[in-house]
Amino acid sequence: MEKYLSQLNEAQLAPTIQVNGPMIIIAGAGSGKTRVLTYRIAYLMSKGVDSFNILALTFTNKAAKEMKERIAQIVGDGEAKNLWMGTFHSVFAKILRFEGHHLGFPSNFTIYDTQDSQKLMGSIIKEMGLDKDIYKTKQVYSRISSYKNSLITVKAYFKNPELMEADAMARRPRMGEIYKEYVDRCFKAGAMDFDDLLLRTNELLTRFPNVLAQYQDKFRYILVDEYQDTNHSQYLIVRALADRFQNICVVGDDAQSIYAFRGANINNILNFQKDYDNVKMYRLEQNYRSTKNIVGAANSVIEHNKTKLDKVVWTANDVGEKVIVHRALTDGDEGRYVASTIWETKMNQQLNNNDFAVLYRTNAQSRAIEDALRKRDIPYRIYGGLSFYQRKEIKDVTAYLRLILNSADEEALKRVINYPGRGIGQTTIDRLIVAANQTGKTIYDVIKDIDSVPININNGTKNKLRDFVTLIESYKVMNQTANAFDLAEHVTKTSGLIRELNKDGTPEGVTRMDNVQELLNGIKDFVEGQMELADAGDSLAEFLEDVALATDMDADKGDPDHVALMTIHLAKGLEFGHVFIVGMEEDLFPSAMSMNTRSELEEERRLFYVALTRAEKQAYLTYTLSRYRWGKLIDAEPSRFIEEIDEQFVDITTPLKERFNPMLDPSIFDDVEPNRVRFAKPKTAKIKKKEPKKQPEKFQISTPKKLKPVSKTEKAPSSFDTKLVVGDTVNHQRFGRGEVMKIEGSGGDIKAEIKFQNGATKKLLLRFAKLEIL
Ligand code: ATP
Ligand code: MG
Asked: Which of 28, 460, 487, 544 lies at a C-alpha separation of 20 to 30 Å from 139?
């Protein structure tokens, strides 16, 4: 252990070897918070703390796995296995398996993923005869999710006139009823959704003091990574469990709190000292991850936030390269820049693909990057898209397995009752649902007792329903003796699923077959792994739990040497040699939806801070002049965040004229989708016609000089800005002639609304728009 402790600096060592008592480590990015947690667990074990008594909560299951592996290297494999380590969801799902019966849930309860939850809500909205354009499933889902994460139960909801009024104001007066029906239906189906895993844990610990006491006694040492992003529900669980021994260690960075939109509460970190007695507070200041330029850039950005704790972050690492800012013409062009830079850097510096990551604000941005990487044959992987387990064919197979384990599972049943087709139509299914609601039985039990339930279904269909039940019952019998793999293979063959996929000879059909095969391989590995552990547990139930809680981040498939593509939210805690942050444009990043209040904007800025601090050696920021969004070509402006970086840390490249002028290089649109070209062509053609001679300069709207951050001393608007008045006629290099309608903002943020002769009215930041007053 001594050897490992010498790998920590003094500031890191102190919290690592403080065995007892509450403590909080607040520190900037890359300062070794996660390393301290890891080493601290190993240290506790070396001091005789039983590994069964330690609970560590991480942001992803992957992070938990890596932590466990590292600890195993230090203390040995055997003991590390006993640690309780994982995300809040996975750890408390396990506890609910043991204890859920107190709340009336079977131990084999199903976990509904977001897709299942939304489907159920959609069906409730339909059954209630509500307008689905007003009661939009996704909105209803996020509303109910936020109630749950704030611990507002159905009962609490109906006692809260403010909430009811807010929903009524949003034209959804029947939210409460939907909420109630949804909760009842989940309960009846023996199912919990993601939020229930936390809400029900809270219920369990509150209503059953004996259960609480038992887990307080078990988890004598609790450690939480990324504490700044815990929501209220998670906070209460930790607090309840830690209350007896108060051996709690939380680490976090207020500057990296990026999940407020999902209910994370930064006050959890700020109030920690009030929650426990004699809290020891530690700070880490030295960043080990990034170059001086990256640390400097990140610090200068976060300085712009008003709400923050004072923190110092410095590094002894090399100065390194400046942050490169690159301007592209379109998203396709941006993708090409990323791909060619990766390609060249890889060659020049002898790097691997997994030294690179591309981060973006929204998932939709990945497409253009993917296209460009594919063209260059650079392997990549998208993290956090539709996870493998959420694909249709995979969900179909797992729905059968879920139904075998828990035949009350309504969503699983609806998924497979007529897939593959058995001639059981939607009307029949709707009638079954009504009968189930009226009798209080599950749909499966209604079908089982079809002869004794008053229901308008003809005999032919009744027979089909009986056949379906017989099939599922036969699987249940098999499940009593067979292992999960044999069962799953049998199900895919005898249910007709494989036949159905085989019928579809398209390449997509073949891929779906491969995926099912891959799932079976996965189950096989899982079963074999369990046999090694001599764990006689219910392999099918455990496998399904892993599946339900797997995020794409956790699944390690394909070529391990790949460029990582993901949203910034997902990149939290990770590090890469070279990081591209793409789409650095106003309305995209910061997002248009997050600019209404200071706190929203500050959260976007923290997100940018997270993004920048993922980079070890080099960070690139790219923005485009125009981008296709929602099927339209939108003019883009560089993000304000670019300007916020202290200029000494950035290098704004001068793009080659030719490369950015579609007139000179028509192939620039080659890989743009056909419907996009339709948008692009008239626009460029128009400019061409108007001022053919000035073509080459056309796309130099903001010369690098103009874009260079206005330094603190020259914050005042340039003389040009003050001269412009409403009514002026101006010429814009791209949009042509127009009239100034309005001027707003101040300092470097002055915007002018201009009505151009081509019909468009645009708001332009004067700082960037090169306008000529006529
Ligand atoms: P984040 O805020 O992004 O989660 P963090 O504070 O958790 O970052 P770590 O991921 O623990 O930081 O550490 C950042 C990097 O610095 C890792 O590669 C880690 O191995 C390395 N590191 C941390 N402390 C030391 C040290 N004392 N000596 C050498 N390397 C270190
Ligand atoms: Mg960390």
From this structure: 544
